[in-house]
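TL;DR need structure tokens for one chain.
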Amino acid sequence: MNVSTGGRRPWSRARLAVLVCAIALLPTPGYAAPAAPDPQDDKSIEGIRTELNGLYREAEIATEAYNTADVKAAGQTKRLAALRKDLARSEARVRDLRNLAGAAARTQYRGGNLASTGIQLLLGDHPEQALDEASQARQALRSLATVSDSEKSARDKVSRQTDAAAKKLRELNISRAAKAAAKQKIEQKIARAEQIENGLQRDQARRLAQLDKTAEQKAKSRWTGGDSGSDTKATGAAERAVDFAMAQMGKPYVWGAVGPSSYDCSGLTSTAWAAAGHPIPRTSQAQWQGLRHVSLASAQPGDLIIYFNDATHVGMYIGQGRIVHAPRPGRSVTVAPAASMPILGVVRPGA
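>> reply
TL;DR here they are.
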């Protein structure tokens, strides 16, 4: 079938091909094919790793602050409860003495025998004031008055201590509430870090893992502590602590957790040493402050290595330049090079 061209010359195949090519080269924004994602270079992957480490580090600092506030408030609560019990006993003692003094005075006024007043109730706690004869009324009353005054003074002292402890507890609870309020910010930092990790492309994740592996190899070479090339084993309580910590391998890091299904860094070390029969402070900062310091060169399995200048991370040394620790949110209890973080020092529980 022929198509009329209106008197114009028909298009040749060559001219049609040129026209099609020209049209194909014209810009067409509405139908442009999506560009392939630009590959991330090593510098940007390193930047991602730095950001992740920074977010998790901030979360760990906040976690340690909350743990410290919680431990202090819990300790003060126990102290206040003990003081209140002491105060109740003191007040009961003062009442008994007041009643006894009144009864003794009435008996003496009537010319009776002080033995019948129950004066011997006093003598059990104060044998130095024992009376051989209940008839020694004046001496008994003087002794009773002295003991009563003494008890009142003790009661007043305990009362002041109780008031001070209650005030301190209120302050600590305010501090703990402030740290607890920071929990949301902590979780936001963790969520941000997890979002970054989950958003990585497969190739990025692979290179990020390679960076972690390279950093681990470098950390192994940096270890200058004890027994790096020996097979030194833990003994006694240290062995029990190491065995307990190693048995927690694979359990997730959860901030503030002390087991049995999850741990944070100091929750793992404190629980492990408690299981070994030697309770130690709960937080890494308290462990650093309260346990005996030893040199890095003399580190032995079971010792605790404290990290960062603010003592906000801790791992248990297991020998040959390695620690077992709960690293951070999103990770599980694992073994790592002891020099993988900036070392503050080494402490030895049970020593």
